[in-house]
Amino acid sequence: MSLRDQLSEIKENGLANISQAADLKTLNEIRVHLLGKKGPITAALRGIKELTPEERPQVGSYANKIRDAITTAVAAQRDRLEARQLNAQLAAEKIDVTLPGKPVAQGQPHVIQQIIDQIVDLFLGMGYEVLTGPEVEEDKYNFEMMNLPKNHPARDMQDTFYLSKEILMRTQTSPMQARALEKHDFSKGPLKMISPGIVYRRDTDDPTHSHQFHQVEGLVIDEHITMADLKGTLITMAQNIFGDKFDIRLRPSYFPFTEPSVEVDVTCFNCMGKGCDVCKHTGWIEVLGAGMVHPNVLKMAGVDASIYGGFAFGVGPDRFAMLKYGVDDIRDFYLNDVRFLNQFSKRGN
Amino acid sequence: MKVSYNWLKQYLKLDMPAKDLAEKIERTAVEVDSVTLGETGLKKLVVGHILTMSNHPESDHLHICSVDVGEDTPLQIVCGAPNVAAGQKVIVALPNSRIGGNVKIKRSKMRGVESEGMICALDEIGFSKDVVPKEWADGIYVFDDNVPVGEPVYHYLGMDDPIIDLDVTPNRGDMLSIIGTVHELAAIYDQHPEIKQPVVNEDDSIDAANEISATADEQLAKTYKLRVIKDVKVAPSPSWLQITLWNAGIRPINNVVDVTNYILLKYGQPLHSFDQDKINGNIVVRNAHQGEKLTTLDEDEQELSPEDIVIADDAQPIALAGVMGGLNTQISDQTQNVVIESAIFDSFHIRKTAQRHVLHSEAAQRFERGINPDGVEDAINEAAALIHQLAGGKVAKGIVTASDYHPALPVIAITADRANHVLGTTLTIDEIQSIFDRLGFTSVKQGEGLAVTIPARRWDIHIDADLFEEIARIYGYDNLPATLPTGRQTIGVLTATQRLERASRQILEGIGLTQAISYSLTTAEKARMFLMRASEETKLLWPMTQDHTTLRMNLLSGLLDDVAYNHAHKVDDVALYEIGRVFYKDSADQIRPEEVEHVAGVITGNLTDPSWNNHVKPVDFFVMKGMVHQFIVNLGIKGDIEYVAADHYPEMHPGRTADILIHGHQVGFIGQIHPRIAKQFKVKETYAFELNMQALIDLPKNDDQYQPIAKYPSIKRDISMIVDSNVTNDQVVAVMQKRGGAYLHGIRLFDVYEGKNVPDGKKSMAYSLTYVNPRETLKDEVVNTAFEKIKKRLTADLNAEIR
Lengths: 349, 803
Ligand SMILES: [Zn+2]
What we know:
The complex is a heterodimer.
Chain A: H1 3-20, H2 24-35, H3 40-45, H4 55-92, H5 111-125, E1 129-130, E2 136-138, H6 139-142, E3 167-169, H7 175-183, E4 191-200, E5 212-222, H8 227-242, E6 248-252, E7 258-267, E8 284-293, H9 295-300, E9 309-315, H10 317-325, H11 332-335, H12 338-341
Parallel strand pairs in A: 1-4
Antiparallel strand pairs in A: 2-3, 4-5, 5-9, 6-7, 7-8, 8-9
Helix pairs in contact in A: 1-2, 1-4, 2-4, 5-10
Chain B: E1 2-4, H1 5-9, H2 18-28, E2 31-36, E3 43-55, E4 63-68, E5 75-79, E6 89-99, E7 103-105, E8 108-110, E9 113-115, E10 118-120, E11 163-167, H3 178-189, E12 202-207, H4 208-211, E13 214-216, E14 221-230, H5 239-247, H6 255-267, E15 271-275, E16 283-287, E17 293-295, E18 301-303, E19 309-312, E20 317-320, E21 324-325, E22 338-345, H7 347-357, H8 362-369, H9 376-391, E23 394-397, E24 400-403, E25 411-414, H10 416-423, H11 429-439, E26 442-446, E27 449-453, H12 464-475, H13 496-511, E28 514-515, E29 521-522, H14 524-527, E30 550-551, H15 556-568, E31 574-584, E32 594-604, H16 621-635, E33 641-645, E34 652-662, E35 665-673, H17 675-681, E36 686-692, H18 693-698, E37 715-724, H19 729-739, E38 744-753, E39 762-771, H20 780-798, E40 801-802
Parallel strand pairs in B: 12-23, 13-16, 28-31
Antiparallel strand pairs in B: 1-11, 2-11, 3-4, 3-6, 4-5, 6-7, 6-10, 8-9, 14-22, 14-23, 14-24, 15-22, 16-19, 17-18, 19-20, 20-21, 25-27, 26-27, 29-30, 31-32, 32-36, 33-34, 34-35, 35-36, 37-39, 37-40, 38-39
Helix pairs in contact in B: 3-11, 5-6, 6-9, 7-8, 11-12, 13-16, 19-20
C-alpha cells in the first residue's frame, strides 16, 4: 500500500469516526488521536523518507489537506453535538407558561380622580389655568356674589351645611368664579380657568345623592366670548371624556349666576340616542349646567360687564363616572372598597 | 304643574303627539317630568246602566245588579259598594278587561252567584285616592245621566287627555298657569291665541263695599282684592270642572272651592274663598301676633309667628295668607254668602311660612315664584262669574280693594350686535324683532336696535341678558353654532403645587397604594384622632346624621373606616392612600377653620395575593416605612429624613411609632395603629402614616443636579457587632458617618439578630460599608485604616463588640 493510500485510509476511517462521535469528549479524543504526535498521520509520515525527493512535497501537502479535512469535520461535528446538547437542555427546561405570573403590588388612581385629571388635562391643553379654593366658604362667595342674595328662592335648591350664619361648606365650586374674577387682571389677558374640588350638600345619602361629591367649575371671561363658544367647548369636553360618537344638546334652564342658562344633555350611553328606559326614551342624559355669566356676577366682582363677558359651566365628575362606567350607586365612590377601586386600572383614557 | 293637553287646545292649534309637544317644551322652555295618559294600560271599561238591583242571598252587603252595557242582554254583576243603586250610570269592567294596577277582570262566582265583570270605583281604575272627590271616596263612581251607555269610559273621566307635567324652574313662575303656558307655546309655534277678558254680571242692588271692608299692609300684600257673592248654593261641581281639577292633581271639593282652584290653574293666581257669615267684622292683612293660633283647612293647628302673614277679622286670624285657609271660615255645604280673595302676597314671607309650617300648597308655590300683577283682577272677575254660573247667587257690585299694584312695564333696549356678540349668532334686527313678536313683547326700532316692552306676565325679565335668553331659546339652541373661544392667548400649565400633588399621587400608586376618597365630615370623636397639632373642632350647625357632624382633623380615621368596610366585606388586604383637606381651628371662637392639605396611607394584610410562587409576608412597620421613605425621597426635599420614636399619639402603638422630621421640621408620623383603636374600628393589624402635604410642598427641594458615577472601583467591607439592645440603627450609622473618613460612600444594614448565641440584652447587627474615591483607585491600606477607625469608635462610643 502506498503512503498516499495509507493516508487516504486514515482519512476515511477518521472522518467516519468523527461523524459517529456521540459526545464532545469522544470527539475530542478522536481529534487528539488523529492529529496528535502519536497519531496515525504522524506515524504514516515516518515513511516519507522512503519516497523520492519529487514525491515528498506532494505527499506532504496531501497530508496537510487531510489534517484540514479532519479539523473541519471535528468542528462541524462539535457544532452538531453542541446544538443537540442545547436542544436537550431546552427540552428539559420546558415550563407551563399558563401558570400565573407573580403578583405585583400596584395602586390605582380613584376613578373620580381619573375623570378630574382627564378634564384638567383637556382644559390645560386649551390654555386654562387650574384654580382651587376653600371647601369652607363664606356665604358671600358661595351665594351672594353668585347673584343669590339672602332671600333668593334658588337657595332652597341647594340645602347647605352651615358652620355659622355666614360660613358654610361650599355647595358648589362656583364661588371660585367670584374669587377668580376678583383677583384677575384683565389687562394681562383673558380669564380661562377650571376649578375642581369637593362640595357638600345637606342631603341624605342614597344611590343618587351624596352629602359630599365633586364638581369642576369652568369659567372663561374676555372681551368677546359667545354662547357658541360655550357650546363648542362643551362638545369638545363631552367627546374627549366619553368618545367621538357623543353629541350634546342645550336646553333652557335657570341658574341665578348665568343668563342665558342651559342644562346640557349628552347622548344616552345606554342606547346611543335611540331611546331607552335609562334616558326616559329621549336619547339624552342630563350631565351638567352652564350659561353665560350673569352681568351681576361680573359687577359684584368688580369687572366691567359692558366690556367683559363669557361663559361658565359646572361639571359633576361623580355623575360623569357613573355614566361612563355604569356605576349605579354614588356611595360606592366614598366607601373605598378596594375591589371597586382596583377595577379602574385601565390607563390612557 | 300638570298641564292638560286638551285645555291647551282650547287656545292653540296643536295636532302633534303629546310626547312631541313635551319635547318641544323641554328644548325651548322648561323641563318636562312626564307625559301621562290616564287610560294607559286599561282595557274594556265601559259606561254601564244599572237596570235592577237585588240583595245577594248569601251576603248582607253584596248586591246583584243587572247592568246594561249596550249589548243585547244586560250583564249580571255582583257589587259590594255601599253606594250602588239601580238607575245609576257606572264604570263597568267587562269580562276580560284590565283595570288599574294591571289587574285582569274575568267572569267569576261571588258566593255562588255569577258576576260578569265588575263595577268600579275611581281608585280601582288608576286614580290616586288624593284626587277622588269625597262623595266617591268610599264607593263606586256614578256618571251624570247624559253619558251614553256602552261607550268606553275614558273620555267621560278625562282619561283620554294627555297630561304634561312641567318641572318649572324658579324663574318661570308664569308657566305655573295654563294661560302662561299658552303664551309660551304661542311663541314656540308662532300662533296668536285669543284669551278672552272675563265678564261679570254684577247685581247692582248689592254693593260689595257695604258687605265687607279690608285693609292691608302693602309690605305684605301689594295687591289685595275681594269680591262678594250672595245666596250661592254649594254643591258638587259639574263633571268637566271635576275632571279638570283631578287631572291637575287637585281633589274636587264643591262648586265654590273648585272654581278658585280652577282659576289658580288657569291664571296662576291663587284665590281664597271665605264663608262671609263666619267673618267677624272687617278683614285685615297683617303679621300674625306672637302666640296666635290658627287651625288650617287640613285641620292642623298652626302656632303662628310674627313672620307669618295672616288674614284676620276683628276677632282672630282666618287664613294663613297665601298658604292655606282657616277652618273657621271655610266654605261648607251650608254656606250662602262667599267672599273671594285675589291678592299678591310677599314671596319671601310666603316661602318662609310654607317652610316653617311645611305647607307647600299650590298657592304657596305660586306666591313664592311671583304673580302676574295684571291678572289679579281678571282672576277674581272670572271666579265670580263662574261661581255665579255654577252655584247661582248674586255677585255684589264692585271690587273691595285694600291695596293695588300696577308696576310700570320695563322697557329694555338691545341691539342685534350685542345679541350676536353674546350668542355667537348672526341674526338681523328683523329676525330678532320677529322673535319678540312671537313672544308677544312689543318692540319698536330705536336707532340700530330695539326698545322692548316686557309684559307684566313675564316678571322674570329685567335686563338685556334676559332678552338674549329669550332670543336664544326661541331661535333654538340647536341652531347655535359651535366654536371655541378665540382672542388673546393663554398658557395652560399646572402650578408647582399642583404638579407636586399630581406627582405624589403617581409615586404613591407606584409604591402600591390605591387612592381613596373618604368623607370629610365625620363624628366628633373620629375628627379629633391622630392630631398632629392642637386644634378645636369645627362642627356643623345642623348636621344631617350623627355620622357626619364634624370636620375631620386627620385623614387616617377616614382611611380606617375604609379598612373596616373592606374587612366587613371579607377583604383582608388593604393598601390605600388619600390626599385631602383637614380642618384646624386655633380657638373655639374661630368660626372658619384653616384648611391644610394632608396625605395619609394605611396598609394591612398582604401587599400582594399569595400565589404558587409568591410566598407573602404580612406587612409590618418597615414595609410602611419603606413606602413613606421612598415617597419623601421622590419628592426631592432638601435635608435629612429622621424617624424619631414617638409614644405621644394616643391612637398609635407607643413602641412602634415615629415622628417624621425633614431637615428638623416635623412633617408627620408613621407607625402601627394602636391595638385598642384597631379594635374600636374593627380593623386588623394596620400600619399607617399621615403627613402634612402642605409642609412637603413648602419645604425647599434639592437642586436639579446629578452626581457623576464613580469611574474607579469601590471596595466593600462588612462589619458585624454585638451591641446593647437599646442601641439604635441611627446611633450606629451616626458613628460610622462621623468617623467613616472621606471615602465612606454607603452604609447598608444587612442583618439584625436577637436570640440564640447572642447574650440577653444584646443584639447583633451587621453592616456592609462601601468605600469609593471618585478621583483615583482606592488602595486597600487606605480603606483598612478607615475601617479600623470605625471599629474603634463603635467600641468606644457604643460599647460595641466587633466580631
Ligand atoms: Zn337611552
